[in-house]
Amino acid sequence: MQNRLFSMNPSYTQPHSPSRLPTMMSSFSVQVPPLKLPTVSISYTQLKDKSADLSAKIEEGFGPNGLGILSISEVPGYSLWRRNLLHFGPRLANLPEDVKKELEDPSSRYNFGWSHGKEKLESGKLDLLKGSFYANPILDVPTTEQSLIKRYPSYCGSNIWPYKALPELETAFKTLGKLILDVGLLLAYHCDQYASREMVMLEGEGLEQTLVHSRCHKGRLLYYFPAQHSRHAHASMSSWCGWHTDHGSLTGLTCGMFTRDAVEIHCPDSAAGLYVKTRTGQIVKVEYGVDEIAYQIGETTEILSSGRLCATPHCVRAPRGDAASGVDRTTFALFMQPDWDQKIYIPGEVHIHQELIQSNGPLTFGEYTEKLLDKYYHP
Known about the structure:
By secondary structure, the chain is of the alpha+beta class. It is 26% helix and 20% strand. A hairpin with a 2-residue loop joins strand 9 and strand 10 (263-265). Helix 2 packs across helix 8 (169-195) and helix 3 crosses helix 8. The radius of gyration is 19 Å and the shape is globular.
């Protein structure tokens, strides 16, 4: 579990400072409407064919000139399980406060169970605009070793399910999470095929095998609370989710579900949604189908692939206007990442969270994550 993901070019320098946890980037003031682009899309039939050469699409979506995101279409069963889980967002957020309190886990930095108002925004203020429910969809108890639980609480803790309040949540969460992981592993295989054209990759190494053997995968059901005064309160592009870059390996993401008074509706504002900042600094609104799974590269994969697979900063913009009043949004992300004892070899030249790196020696992924949590989360 401690092998390198890729044979890395030690001179590689990352051009931005990302993390899944909030990066302190200022909100962008946009004078003209941002460009809207569809994701590069790959069908599930193509993806599961290991003899297919998908390098061109991998490069277009994840390469140095890509948006750091692509989508997979026509995944069997996905549409049903997406809707099934996302309908739990408002129900979970509207549980009585004492019930949600029982679902909190301060010892894990609120990385298991319910979390609201614990994560810092770009401004340094606590984020009250969204609530999250975290769980490992593959392992309820990743380890029973107390020393590991104490050292890496955000990964080694145990799941907390609302068995009495929402007993159906567990099955819905695990089913969708495992499906997104299985599809992600197929995508990781093709990412390895693309990266290995220019890199030495020994048998058993690479993104796919790292994710196969990891016990750290974490699902996050996100609920964005409705805006009651949406005309002025959400003018910022990053109004619902601040600018950040995922710090793990690969993130699977559903298209958001919008509701008003528990009834599903179309998004009332075409400018609302996911935005990406490209390598050239351009802000792009990224669009993909409601029945597609989007995948984004995380910073760990970018570093360990020497920049061949690239992560990009992104944010979520809330809907604006009178029609958006009372509208909420639910989505689900699966963070696929190395095991907690996977060593991450970070070159001294990499300008990424330099204040967290004490030497040129490797950090385990668990150590790296805990340092980021120290910086960006309310104790």
